[in-house]
Amino acid sequence: MARKKKTQQEPEPKPDLTPMIDIVFNLIIFFMIVSELSNLTVEQLELAYASESQDPPKAGGKKQDKVLQVNVMPDGLVKINGHGYTDDPKLKAASKGQYPSLKEFIETEAAGYEREEPDPANPNLAPSKMKVNIRADKETMFKNVQQVFDACQKNGVYKTSLAASKDAPNK
Amino acid sequence: MSKKKGSRFESEEVELEMTPMIDIVFNLLIFFMCATKFRTPEGMIESYLPKDKGQAAGTPQIDLNEVRIKLLWYDGPGGRPTKAEKGGYVVLKVGDEVFNGGSTFLGTHQRYPSMDPVWATLHSKLVEFKAGYKGGGEKGLPVIIDARKQVPTKYVVSALNEVVRAGIQDVTFAAPEIDY
Question: Nearest CB to A165: which of B40, B51, B179?
Answer without folding.
Answer: B40
